[in-house]
Every structure is written in C-alpha cells, then in structure tokens.
Amino acid sequence: MRSLYIVLGVLALAPVCVVAALIATGTVDDKSLGMMLNLMTGADGPTADESTLAKRYQVPDGFQISLYTSDLPRARFLRFTPGGDLLVSRPHEGDIVLLEKDINGDGRPDGTRVLLTDLQRPLGIDIHDNWLYIAESDRISKIRFDSERGQTSGELLTVVPNLTDDGNHWSKTLRIGPDEKIYLSQGSTCNICEEEDARRATMMRFELDGSKGEIIATGLRNSVGFDWAHWDQALYATDNGRDLLGDDTPPCELNLIQPGKFYGWPYFYGDNIADPDMAADPQAAERSPTQPVHPFRAHNAPLGITFLDGSELPEDYNRSALVALHGSWNRSSLDGYKVVSLHWTPTGIEERDFLTGFLQEEGVSGRPVDVAQAQDGSIYISDDYAGAIYRVTHQPDGESSAVPVLQTTSRLDEKPPQWLANADLPAMASSGKMLYRRLGCRGCHEEGQNPSRLDALSTRLGYSATIDALAYPQAPMPAFPLSNNERRELAVYLLWNPESAD
C-alpha cells in the first residue's frame, strides 16, 4: 500500500521508471510521502499557528516573525500591489487571492478574497500600468486592475498564447523588468532530456503586448524565481538541479542571467561537469556553459528570490536577497526547508540562514516558496505545505513595532533627522521632483477644482512626518511602492528650500 501511495504522489513529478527507482532504493520516506500527497492530491498539510512559530522558528537577532495568515492552502507566489494589498497565486487551486492591507494594525490582513478564479495553474504575477499580468501554465494573460480598490475589471486577455505545459515543470514565472518588458521563465518537461519545445528550460522576453518574443537564456532546468539587483539592475535566477545522481549531487544554482548565455542543462551541471546520462552537447562548437555565480546544497530546491530594500535593515543587508528553499523530496535525509539570505560582498556571495525551523526530527512543518517585501520594509514568506504566510520585521532593541498613526496637527521635527546632515539635497530634490511627476501627484495637488496644495507643507510637517505620510498614507492618497530612499527624496523635494540653506 505504501508503494501505491508513493506512485500516486510522484507520478506527475517523474517517469514511472524513476518512481520505481526511488521506491527500490528507499529514497522516499514517510516524511516525503506526506509532502507529495499534499502537493499532488491536496491532502492536508501541517497547521501553522503562533505556538509552532514560537517553538520552532528562528530568525536573526533584531528580527521578529509572526503569522500573517494560516488559511491559504498551497499558497505559492507573492506580489504586493501599489495599494499595499498582497496577491497570492495558487496554481493547484487555479486562483489568485488578495489579502487586504493590514490597516487596523492587528498583524493580520483586513480581509481575504479570491480575486480571480478558473485560471490554468497560475504562478507568476506582476502589476504594471494598471494591468495585472498572470503567468498561467499555458499562456500569459492580463486584466485591468485598480490597485486603490483592489479590484479587477473587464475581460481576462491573452497576451502570449500556446505555451506548452506538459511534463514535470509546467509552471511559469513572470516579472515585468526595469526595461518595461515581460520576462518569462519556464522549466523543463523532464529530469534530464533534450526538449522538443525550444522554449522550455529557458528565460524569454516579450514586449508588454506579447510581441517580439525571444529566448534570452537557455540551459535553465527549472528557474522558478528571478529578480533584479537594485544596485546595478543585474538579473539573477534560481535553478533547481537534476535528480537521481545521489544525495549531494548536483548542486542547485543561482545564475546571473545574461542575454545569449547557455547555462548547461541537460549536458552539464554545477561547475560545468558533464552529465553522465547525456551525450556530448551537439552545439558545443557554438556555445559553452556558463557557471553559476553561487551554488546551493543539492536538492534544496531554491524557488522565489527577492532583493531587499535594506534602508531600514542592518548595514550588511544593503546588498542582499532572500531565497526560499522549498526543500528536498528525493533525498535519503531531508535537507533545505528554510529561507536563506545572500549577501554580495567584496569577496563574493555569502549565504546565511534567515528563517529556519521547518525541518526537525519530528518532521516537516512547512515549505517556503516565495518572498516579498512590503512598502514598509517588512518581509512576507509563503508556505505551500502549511498554507500560511509569515511576516518578518526588523526591530532593533528598544524600538517599537507599532505602525505609526499620523496626527492631524502640526508635526515639525524637533531636530533634523540624522540622514539629512550628509545628504546631497539638490540631487535628492531633483530625484524627488521626477518621482512626484511620475507618480501623478500633480493630479491631486495642483489640478482640478479643489486641489490639495502642498505649498505650505513645510509649515505643518517635518521630514519624519512627511516620510511617515508617504509610508502610511491616509485615504484618498494611494500607497505607492516606494523605497525608504525614494520617500526621503520626495520629502526633500516637498520641504527643502534652497534659499534658506547655509
């Protein structure tokens, strides 16, 4: 009976011959069986609660973890809206859920509702220019989206049709890049093979209307997560290594994605080691494999990656990213099941534990999938096994975690904030002016019959209060996805008077 359950759980993940091999070697144990049944059949996973968090989970000193929601079975990818709501894709449910922004400050979403349903296994989601883009398993689609109200309107439109979704890695990840183009990753159909569809196991790029599709990187077995480093706009993608070469081979990867590069699969793995199950690369004369910039432990299954705005975090998070390690399913002893931080240092990329405790002797209590950072700097992590979203905040000793409540009376700075002393105010004011125009602030503050003018703002609010107002806006002002530095730039533009400068 146990073998029958294993076959049912693994059949969609690997060929029958692979299933037989896993059973024969004892690679699949009872812990793996439970996770497979949860993934493939929807069987209940563990329950996330505050008691489990307190007993099991650890984050670095100065950080705190809480349970944002515990009732989202098989929650996968995350994306914050400009209005501060959190979107969650659930490919196995065929829907996208909206978690309403926590305005009342109780640490939970103010509401949960299904935004879209009857989708074809949606995973990647992103928002651009009032459109919600969705990577379904067989197409890219989009629909009009009002971020202030958190509502869609009109029909769901096909942007890129006829994507193949057969085989093992059918999910698609989508992001809108800094160049305002659609980036799409799609995994391989198999563990190790030559693909019939040249678009599989690649990174692609399209115009926003779906035109001019091109493959920009190949040899990516299953790059589920990717993001751009904010300091140089370089594109990095996680990649899951192949199975059935032993517990510790091959490593999973972080790759620096560059147009025209080949990243090895299926002919090479790791540091360009030839795969024993494949013949020589038939295109060896035209290309050579590109080595990963960072290895993860074998079978740790890195999925979502998010580069952090480290302006409110410790200094060593200024150039960092968080990666969700989903964890092994075919290893004799389980490994992974945590979130790690990657730190770009002068000597290379350093990996550290960030959120741990999902894997213990008594079993697995969760599987991290994706990471998203809110406008206020807090970090959200999805868990598709426990059906939960966790919230991690940074609170140095002595600081309150309460969300500031803005007062209607004057709030001038008692003393200038420390960052102002060494700031390049003309440059910040210039950047703030561009932000002011790009965000359309003139529409409310300068135009119309009764504009809410900001001419005398400096007589009412200081820098700290203005930055708070941008971080936690009161209706009808929308919540813009701004970094802390961008909020400072806007504050300088609105408050700084060059004529009064020394």
Automatic annotation (TrEMBL):
Signal peptide: none annotated. It holds the Pfam family TrAA12. The lineage of its organism: Bacteria, Pseudomonadati, Pseudomonadota, Gammaproteobacteria, Cellvibrionales. This is Oxidoreductase. Keywords: Heme, Iron, Metal-binding. It comes from the Bacteria. Gene3D superfamilies: Cytochrome c-like domain, TolB, C-terminal domain. Residues 427-498 form the Cytochrome c domain. The keyword Iron applies.
